[in-house]
Write a structure and sequence with these properties.
The protein is mainly α. It has 17 helices and no strands. Helix 5 packs across helix 8 and helix 8 runs antiparallel to helix 15.
Length: about 400
């Protein structure tokens, strides 16, 4: 079923569908990263320490883990289009509240934004499964690319907008404005496209708990997310401690994120054309292993190369995981269930990664044991990836 024929009662032009899809995707990353670059100014304004301030970012990840399982049930109750509109409205409200100079209000805003993004993360693969099953690779590639662009724009424009306006709330409120426009578009789409007859079936993720494929994908996504957020947090510090100049160490993070954008698109397109995916994911995990080995054994030799390898491997694995959510399920509601399970448990696994990585450095005084930990977890990710690469659909317990 194409986007043009997604609803028999209200045909939707493919171009409009893609615009709405891309706008929704950009709102699932930019609001997360826009706070980080202006966090020091927020701390000064609110007179809070780093521990409290970390709730603005780590609180988001915890919301993803805790609230994602609720998303399939919401979509089943009110319909997928309305559920996406509701998620975007929550993101918008969260952004507006996070732009107010009050710690309690900002924390409430973080909860709303985290809720909306957690739900949106679950809904988007299900939307692709429902509306564009014949163009999975193209659409999931677009999805991951737009999220990467959103993250890059959110982080890259935050400080310039703050400096231009004189206040840290402006970049946060600007993205809330983007969310408002997107939510309005999806509310209109939800009104235009009535709830489908096949929506409303049982979507409890517990129905997947006896599926080995579902658990394997969940483990893969958890290890991938843990590695990603750990590297996002600690790569500059690890590189600097090893002798990489501070400017180059900070630049490694930008290179990782920029490299992940084209890698995610290519892998989604390639994965959709393949029947067996084990060799593909094995190659992606090997890229990450080479990047980690270079960062550990010869960090100053070629930090740019290590960053490119890490970005290509991480971006490709993330795109692969999302694409498998669509390809390893039979129906859109099954995709929502698998997305909720994989992302919920996956983000819960990821939440402790940066903390444990840093704690090991505090205990040992260097980063070797921390990097060994990442390599060990990468081996788990690799085995899970090779298993999920086998063409086997998830089994859903009836009843």
């Amino acid at each position: 079923m194409s986007a043009r024929s997604a609803s028999p009662t209200a045909p939707l032009p493919a171009a409009l569908w893609l615009v709405a899809f891309a706008l929704a995707a950009i709102n699932l990353r930019a609001p997360i990263v826009v706070v980080g670059p202006v966090l020091e100014s927020i701390m000064q304004t609110l007179a809070i320490g780093a521990g409290v301030a970390s709730l603005f970012t780590t609180g988001m990840i915890l919301c993803f883990g805790v609230l994602s399982p609720l998303a399939p049930g919401v979509a089943a109750r009110i319909g997928l289009d309305r559920a996406i509109a509701l998620a975007l409205a929550a993101i918008t409200l969260g952004g507006l509240l996070r732009g107010i100079e009050s710690l309690p209000v900002m924390l409430v805003g973080t909860l709303f934004a985290g809720l909306g993004i957690a739900f949106g993360n679950v809904f988007m693969p299900s939307l692709v499964k429902r509306d564009r099953p014949e163009r999975i690779g193209q659409t999931m590639g677009l999805y991951t690319v737009v999220m990467g662009i959103g993250a890059t724009l959110g982080a890259g424009t935050a400080v310039p907008l703050m400096n231009l306006s004189g206040h840290w709330s402006v970049p946060i409120l600007m993205w809330a404005g983007v969310g408002l426009v997107t939510a309005a578009l999806w509310i209109w789409l939800a009104w235009r496209r009535p709830r489908r007859a096949d929506e409303g079936q049982s979507t409890r993720i517990t129905r997947l708990f006896k599926s080995r494929t579902a658990w394997t994908l969940t483990l893969f996504m958890g290890m991938q997310s843990l590695g990603f957020y750990t590297l996002q947090t600690w790569v500059p510090a690890v590189a600097s401690a090893a002798g990489v100049p501070s400017a180059a160490a900070g630049g490694m993070l930008s290179i990782i994120n920029l490299t992940s954008i084209p890698a995610s698109y290519v892998i989604a397109r390639l994965a959709a054309r393949l029947h067996h995916h084990s060799l593909l994911v094995l190659g992606l995990c090997l890229l990450i292993a080479l990047g980690l080995a270079g960062l550990w054994l010869a960090p100053t030799a070629s930090p740019t190369l290590w960053a490119i390898l890490l970005g290509a491997g991480q971006g490709g694995c993330f795109s692969f995981a999302l694409t498998m959510i669509v390809m390893r399920t039979r129906r859109a509601d099954h995709a929502a269930m698998l997305s909720g399970m994989a992302q919920s448990l996956g983000y819960l696994m990821a939440a402790g990664g940066p903390l444990v990585f840093g704690a090991l450095h505090g205990i040992t005084g260097d980063w070797r044991l921390s990097l060994w930990l990442l390599m060990g977890l990468l081996s788990v990710q690799t085995v899970a990836g090779v298993m999920i690469g086998r063409p086997k659909l998830v089994t859903v317990r009836e009843g």
